[in-house]
Amino acid sequence: MDFALTSDQKLMQESLSRTLADASSLDRVRKFAGDLTDKGGDVWQAVADFGLTGIVIPEEHGGLGLTMLDAALASEALGAAVAPVAFMGVVLGPLALMGGGTAEQQAEWLPKLASGAVMAAAAISEPIAGARDGAGVTAKAGKLTGKALFVPGGLAAGLLIVADTAGGLHLMRGDAPGLTRSLMPGLDETRRLAELAFDNTPAEPLSGGAALLARLRDAGWVLIAADSLGAAQVMLDKAVAYAKERRQFDRVIGSFQAVKHMCAEMAAELEPCRSLVWYAAYAFDSAPAEASLMAAHAKALTSEVGRFVARTATEVHGGMGITDLLGLHFWFKRLGLNRQLLGGPERVREIAARLQGLAA
Hints:
Layout: H1 7-23, H2 26-33, H3 41-50, H4 68-80, H5 87-100, H6 103-115, E1 120-123, H7 125-129, E2 136-140, E3 143-152, E4 159-163, E5 169-173, E6 179-184, E7 193-202, E8 204-206, H8 209-245, E9 247-248, E10 251-252, H9 257-286, H10 288-317, H11 328-340, H12 345-355
Parallel strand pairs: 1-4
Antiparallel strand pairs: 2-3, 3-7, 4-5, 5-8, 6-7, 9-10
Protein backbone atom coordinates (compact mmCIF):
# COMPACT_ATOMS: atom_id res chain seq x y z
CA MET A 1 0.00 0.00 0.00
CA ASP A 2 1.40 3.39 -1.01
CA PHE A 3 0.27 5.84 1.68
CA ALA A 4 1.39 9.39 1.03
CA LEU A 5 0.00 12.89 0.83
CA THR A 6 -1.57 14.01 -2.41
CA SER A 7 -0.11 16.90 -4.36
CA ASP A 8 -3.12 19.02 -3.32
CA GLN A 9 -2.52 18.28 0.36
CA LYS A 10 1.15 19.16 0.09
CA LEU A 11 0.29 22.38 -1.74
CA MET A 12 -2.33 23.31 0.86
CA GLN A 13 0.07 22.83 3.75
CA GLU A 14 2.87 24.73 2.02
CA SER A 15 0.54 27.61 1.13
CA LEU A 16 -0.76 27.78 4.70
CA SER A 17 2.79 27.81 6.05
CA ARG A 18 3.61 30.78 3.80
CA THR A 19 0.46 32.59 4.93
CA LEU A 20 1.34 32.02 8.58
CA ALA A 21 4.94 33.16 8.03
CA ASP A 22 3.50 36.59 7.23
CA ALA A 23 0.44 36.69 9.48
CA SER A 24 1.94 34.94 12.51
CA SER A 25 5.62 35.86 12.50
CA LEU A 26 7.63 35.40 15.67
CA ASP A 27 7.39 39.13 16.35
CA ARG A 28 3.59 38.92 16.02
CA VAL A 29 3.46 35.93 18.36
CA ARG A 30 5.67 37.73 20.86
CA LYS A 31 3.34 40.75 20.77
CA PHE A 32 0.30 38.52 21.32
CA ALA A 33 1.98 36.77 24.24
CA GLY A 34 2.87 40.05 25.92
CA ASP A 35 -0.55 41.69 25.70
CA LEU A 36 -3.60 39.98 27.20
CA THR A 37 -5.87 42.50 25.47
CA ASP A 38 -4.57 41.36 22.06
CA LYS A 39 -7.16 38.96 20.66
CA GLY A 40 -5.13 38.07 17.55
CA GLY A 41 -7.92 39.22 15.25
CA ASP A 42 -5.60 39.83 12.32
CA VAL A 43 -4.21 36.29 12.52
CA TRP A 44 -7.73 34.86 12.74
CA GLN A 45 -8.76 36.90 9.69
CA ALA A 46 -5.78 35.64 7.71
CA VAL A 47 -6.75 32.07 8.59
CA ALA A 48 -10.38 32.76 7.63
CA ASP A 49 -9.34 34.36 4.33
CA PHE A 50 -7.29 31.25 3.60
CA GLY A 51 -10.47 29.19 4.01
CA LEU A 52 -9.31 27.24 7.04
CA THR A 53 -12.39 28.06 9.11
CA GLY A 54 -14.51 25.95 6.78
CA ILE A 55 -12.06 23.09 6.28
CA VAL A 56 -14.38 20.25 7.39
CA ILE A 57 -17.69 21.99 6.68
CA PRO A 58 -19.56 20.66 3.62
CA GLU A 59 -19.54 22.77 0.47
CA GLU A 60 -23.31 23.28 0.59
CA HIS A 61 -22.80 25.27 3.80
CA GLY A 62 -19.94 27.36 2.42
CA GLY A 63 -17.03 25.17 3.54
CA LEU A 64 -14.31 23.21 1.79
CA GLY A 65 -15.60 19.74 2.66
CA LEU A 66 -12.15 18.31 3.33
CA THR A 67 -11.07 15.39 5.52
CA MET A 68 -9.57 15.04 8.98
CA LEU A 69 -6.20 14.37 7.36
CA ASP A 70 -6.39 17.79 5.71
CA ALA A 71 -7.31 19.33 9.07
CA ALA A 72 -4.37 17.56 10.71
CA LEU A 73 -1.98 18.96 8.11
CA ALA A 74 -3.34 22.44 8.83
CA SER A 75 -2.93 21.86 12.56
CA GLU A 76 0.67 20.80 11.99
CA ALA A 77 1.35 24.07 10.14
CA LEU A 78 -0.29 26.07 12.94
CA GLY A 79 1.84 24.32 15.54
CA ALA A 80 4.99 24.97 13.52
CA ALA A 81 4.12 28.69 13.42
CA VAL A 82 2.98 28.72 17.10
CA ALA A 83 0.00 30.62 15.67
CA PRO A 84 -2.35 32.20 18.22
CA VAL A 85 -5.39 30.45 16.75
CA ALA A 86 -7.83 28.17 18.59
CA PHE A 87 -8.05 25.66 15.75
CA MET A 88 -9.63 22.84 17.74
CA GLY A 89 -12.96 24.64 17.84
CA VAL A 90 -12.77 25.25 14.09
CA VAL A 91 -12.99 21.48 13.59
CA LEU A 92 -14.88 20.20 16.64
CA GLY A 93 -17.70 22.75 16.40
CA PRO A 94 -18.77 21.71 12.87
CA LEU A 95 -18.26 18.01 13.67
CA ALA A 96 -20.63 18.33 16.62
CA LEU A 97 -23.23 20.10 14.50
CA MET A 98 -22.93 17.65 11.61
CA GLY A 99 -23.05 14.65 13.94
CA GLY A 100 -25.73 15.73 16.38
CA GLY A 101 -27.36 18.95 15.23
CA THR A 102 -30.72 19.42 13.58
CA ALA A 103 -31.05 20.63 10.01
CA GLU A 104 -32.09 24.03 11.37
CA GLN A 105 -29.06 24.27 13.65
CA GLN A 106 -26.75 23.29 10.81
CA ALA A 107 -28.30 25.84 8.46
CA GLU A 108 -27.98 28.58 11.09
CA TRP A 109 -24.44 27.94 12.30
CA LEU A 110 -22.37 26.15 9.67
CA PRO A 111 -22.25 29.06 7.15
CA LYS A 112 -21.23 31.46 9.94
CA LEU A 113 -18.49 29.10 11.09
CA ALA A 114 -17.30 28.51 7.52
CA SER A 115 -16.88 32.24 6.86
CA GLY A 116 -15.10 32.86 10.16
CA ALA A 117 -17.81 35.31 11.26
CA VAL A 118 -18.38 33.14 14.35
CA MET A 119 -15.78 31.17 16.29
CA ALA A 120 -16.66 27.87 17.96
CA ALA A 121 -15.12 26.33 21.07
CA ALA A 122 -15.54 22.88 22.58
CA ALA A 123 -15.78 22.51 26.37
CA ILE A 124 -15.34 18.73 26.59
CA SER A 125 -12.32 18.27 28.85
CA GLU A 126 -14.01 17.02 32.04
CA PRO A 127 -15.63 13.79 30.77
CA ILE A 128 -12.44 12.96 28.82
CA ALA A 129 -9.49 14.08 30.93
CA GLY A 130 -11.27 14.00 34.29
CA ALA A 131 -12.72 16.83 36.35
CA ARG A 132 -10.45 19.11 38.37
CA ASP A 133 -11.17 21.67 41.10
CA GLY A 134 -14.80 20.67 41.31
CA ALA A 135 -15.37 21.26 37.60
CA GLY A 136 -18.15 19.52 35.73
CA VAL A 137 -21.43 20.44 34.11
CA THR A 138 -24.89 19.07 34.86
CA ALA A 139 -27.88 19.36 32.54
CA LYS A 140 -31.49 19.66 33.59
CA ALA A 141 -34.54 20.81 31.66
CA GLY A 142 -32.51 22.43 28.89
CA LYS A 143 -30.23 24.38 31.22
CA LEU A 144 -26.62 23.83 32.30
CA THR A 145 -25.06 24.40 35.70
CA GLY A 146 -21.42 24.04 36.74
CA LYS A 147 -18.11 24.95 35.16
CA ALA A 148 -15.85 23.77 32.38
CA LEU A 149 -12.09 24.30 32.43
CA PHE A 150 -9.31 24.36 29.83
CA VAL A 151 -11.45 25.54 26.92
CA PRO A 152 -9.26 26.72 23.99
CA GLY A 153 -10.85 29.74 22.33
CA GLY A 154 -13.60 29.85 24.93
CA LEU A 155 -13.12 33.54 25.69
CA ALA A 156 -14.13 34.73 22.22
CA ALA A 157 -16.34 31.93 20.89
CA GLY A 158 -19.82 32.84 19.72
CA LEU A 159 -20.82 29.17 19.68
CA LEU A 160 -20.00 26.73 22.47
CA ILE A 161 -20.23 22.94 22.39
CA VAL A 162 -20.48 21.82 26.02
CA ALA A 163 -20.27 18.28 27.39
CA ASP A 164 -22.03 17.39 30.64
CA THR A 165 -20.82 14.86 33.18
CA ALA A 166 -23.15 12.20 31.76
CA GLY A 167 -21.53 12.48 28.31
CA GLY A 168 -24.28 14.48 26.66
CA LEU A 169 -23.47 17.38 24.34
CA HIS A 170 -25.16 20.75 24.19
CA LEU A 171 -25.09 23.74 21.85
CA MET A 172 -24.87 27.11 23.58
CA ARG A 173 -24.88 30.63 22.19
CA GLY A 174 -22.03 32.87 23.23
CA ASP A 175 -24.44 35.47 24.63
CA ALA A 176 -26.55 33.03 26.64
CA PRO A 177 -27.71 34.38 30.03
CA GLY A 178 -25.92 32.89 33.03
CA LEU A 179 -22.69 32.28 31.10
CA THR A 180 -19.52 33.70 32.67
CA ARG A 181 -16.09 33.48 31.07
CA SER A 182 -12.71 34.05 32.69
CA LEU A 183 -9.12 33.64 31.58
CA MET A 184 -7.23 30.67 33.01
CA PRO A 185 -3.52 31.33 33.62
CA GLY A 186 -1.57 28.84 31.56
CA LEU A 187 1.86 27.73 30.46
CA ASP A 188 1.33 28.38 26.75
CA GLU A 189 1.35 32.08 25.88
CA THR A 190 0.32 31.48 22.27
CA ARG A 191 -3.17 30.17 23.11
CA ARG A 192 -5.53 31.26 25.85
CA LEU A 193 -7.70 28.91 27.84
CA ALA A 194 -11.05 29.84 29.33
CA GLU A 195 -12.96 28.81 32.41
CA LEU A 196 -16.67 28.77 31.62
CA ALA A 197 -19.20 29.00 34.45
CA PHE A 198 -22.86 28.16 33.89
CA ASP A 199 -25.75 29.22 36.13
CA ASN A 200 -28.97 27.74 34.76
CA THR A 201 -27.69 28.69 31.33
CA PRO A 202 -30.00 27.71 28.45
CA ALA A 203 -28.55 25.29 25.91
CA GLU A 204 -29.87 23.15 23.08
CA PRO A 205 -29.20 19.40 23.37
CA LEU A 206 -27.40 17.63 20.54
CA SER A 207 -28.16 14.06 19.59
CA GLY A 208 -25.44 11.44 19.42
CA GLY A 209 -24.64 11.08 23.11
CA ALA A 210 -21.47 9.29 24.15
CA ALA A 211 -20.68 8.14 20.61
CA LEU A 212 -20.54 11.73 19.34
CA LEU A 213 -18.47 12.82 22.34
CA ALA A 214 -16.00 10.00 21.58
CA ARG A 215 -15.77 11.20 17.99
CA LEU A 216 -15.01 14.74 19.14
CA ARG A 217 -12.43 13.34 21.55
CA ASP A 218 -10.72 11.40 18.76
CA ALA A 219 -10.68 14.47 16.51
CA GLY A 220 -9.25 16.58 19.32
CA TRP A 221 -6.51 14.04 20.01
CA VAL A 222 -5.52 13.94 16.33
CA LEU A 223 -5.41 17.74 16.05
CA ILE A 224 -3.34 18.11 19.22
CA ALA A 225 -0.94 15.39 18.07
CA ALA A 226 -0.52 17.13 14.70
CA ASP A 227 0.07 20.49 16.38
CA SER A 228 2.74 18.88 18.57
CA LEU A 229 4.33 17.29 15.51
CA GLY A 230 4.66 20.68 13.83
CA ALA A 231 6.03 22.38 16.94
CA ALA A 232 8.53 19.60 17.66
CA GLN A 233 9.78 19.55 14.06
CA VAL A 234 10.56 23.28 14.25
CA MET A 235 12.45 22.80 17.52
CA LEU A 236 14.50 20.03 15.92
CA ASP A 237 15.19 22.13 12.82
CA LYS A 238 16.26 25.08 14.93
CA ALA A 239 18.57 22.89 17.02
CA VAL A 240 20.25 21.47 13.90
CA ALA A 241 20.65 24.93 12.35
CA TYR A 242 22.12 26.31 15.56
CA ALA A 243 24.55 23.39 15.85
CA LYS A 244 25.82 24.15 12.35
CA GLU A 245 26.66 27.79 13.12
CA ARG A 246 27.56 27.95 16.83
CA ARG A 247 31.32 27.66 17.27
CA GLN A 248 33.24 26.48 20.29
CA PHE A 249 36.95 25.62 20.50
CA ASP A 250 37.26 26.80 16.87
CA ARG A 251 34.75 24.23 15.67
CA VAL A 252 31.00 24.27 15.07
CA ILE A 253 29.31 22.38 17.90
CA GLY A 254 27.55 20.20 15.34
CA SER A 255 30.87 18.46 14.76
CA PHE A 256 30.91 17.18 18.35
CA GLN A 257 29.75 13.60 18.65
CA ALA A 258 27.53 14.29 21.66
CA VAL A 259 25.62 17.02 19.82
CA LYS A 260 25.31 14.83 16.72
CA HIS A 261 23.78 12.08 18.86
CA MET A 262 21.29 14.51 20.46
CA CYS A 263 20.08 15.73 17.07
CA ALA A 264 19.96 12.24 15.59
CA GLU A 265 17.99 10.89 18.53
CA MET A 266 15.45 13.70 18.23
CA ALA A 267 14.97 12.93 14.54
CA ALA A 268 14.70 9.19 15.18
CA GLU A 269 12.06 9.69 17.88
CA LEU A 270 10.02 12.24 15.93
CA GLU A 271 9.83 10.67 12.48
CA PRO A 272 7.56 7.71 13.46
CA CYS A 273 5.10 10.23 14.93
CA ARG A 274 4.46 11.64 11.47
CA SER A 275 3.13 8.43 9.93
CA LEU A 276 1.15 7.65 13.08
CA VAL A 277 -0.53 11.07 13.09
CA TRP A 278 -1.30 10.79 9.37
CA TYR A 279 -2.81 7.34 9.78
CA ALA A 280 -4.84 8.36 12.82
CA ALA A 281 -6.27 11.27 10.81
CA TYR A 282 -6.96 8.97 7.85
CA ALA A 283 -8.63 6.37 10.09
CA PHE A 284 -10.98 9.01 11.52
CA ASP A 285 -12.81 9.16 8.18
CA SER A 286 -11.92 5.89 6.48
CA ALA A 287 -11.33 3.23 9.16
CA PRO A 288 -13.83 3.91 11.98
CA ALA A 289 -13.08 0.62 13.75
CA GLU A 290 -9.48 1.76 14.29
CA ALA A 291 -10.07 5.49 14.71
CA SER A 292 -10.26 5.77 18.51
CA LEU A 293 -7.26 3.57 19.21
CA MET A 294 -5.11 5.23 16.56
CA ALA A 295 -6.04 8.69 17.85
CA ALA A 296 -5.09 7.63 21.37
CA HIS A 297 -1.74 6.24 20.22
CA ALA A 298 -0.99 9.42 18.25
CA LYS A 299 -1.83 11.69 21.17
CA ALA A 300 0.13 9.66 23.74
CA LEU A 301 3.23 9.17 21.58
CA THR A 302 3.54 12.77 20.39
CA SER A 303 3.05 13.95 23.98
CA GLU A 304 6.06 11.95 25.13
CA VAL A 305 8.22 12.61 22.08
CA GLY A 306 7.29 16.29 22.07
CA ARG A 307 8.55 16.70 25.64
CA PHE A 308 11.79 14.91 24.77
CA VAL A 309 12.41 17.04 21.67
CA ALA A 310 11.57 20.26 23.52
CA ARG A 311 14.04 19.48 26.29
CA THR A 312 16.81 18.20 24.02
CA ALA A 313 16.55 21.02 21.48
CA THR A 314 16.79 23.54 24.29
CA GLU A 315 19.88 21.77 25.61
CA VAL A 316 21.53 21.94 22.17
CA HIS A 317 21.06 25.72 22.26
CA GLY A 318 22.68 25.95 25.67
CA GLY A 319 22.03 29.19 27.54
CA MET A 320 20.62 30.83 24.40
CA GLY A 321 17.79 28.32 24.44
CA ILE A 322 15.99 30.03 27.31
CA THR A 323 16.28 33.59 26.02
CA ASP A 324 13.34 35.53 24.60
CA LEU A 325 15.58 36.60 21.70
CA LEU A 326 15.34 33.17 20.07
CA GLY A 327 11.76 32.61 21.19
CA LEU A 328 12.31 28.87 21.53
CA HIS A 329 10.21 28.91 24.68
CA PHE A 330 7.04 29.53 22.65
CA TRP A 331 7.34 26.09 21.03
CA PHE A 332 8.52 24.54 24.31
CA LYS A 333 5.45 25.79 26.20
CA ARG A 334 3.06 24.92 23.37
CA LEU A 335 4.26 21.33 23.53
CA GLY A 336 3.82 21.41 27.29
CA LEU A 337 0.17 22.43 27.02
CA ASN A 338 -0.51 19.95 24.21
CA ARG A 339 0.76 17.17 26.46
CA GLN A 340 -2.06 17.80 28.95
CA LEU A 341 -4.94 18.99 26.74
CA LEU A 342 -7.76 16.40 26.67
CA GLY A 343 -5.69 14.17 28.93
CA GLY A 344 -2.01 13.54 29.54
CA PRO A 345 -0.36 10.46 28.01
CA GLU A 346 -1.07 8.34 31.10
CA ARG A 347 -4.78 9.15 30.95
CA VAL A 348 -4.93 8.58 27.19
CA ARG A 349 -3.21 5.19 27.51
CA GLU A 350 -5.72 4.23 30.21
CA ILE A 351 -8.57 5.03 27.81
CA ALA A 352 -6.78 3.08 25.06
CA ALA A 353 -6.51 0.08 27.38
CA ARG A 354 -10.24 0.24 28.04
CA LEU A 355 -10.95 0.42 24.30
CA GLN A 356 -9.04 -2.86 23.87
CA GLY A 357 -10.69 -4.55 26.85
CA LEU A 358 -7.43 -4.57 28.79
CA ALA A 359 -8.76 -2.50 31.69
CA ALA A 360 -12.10 -2.16 33.45
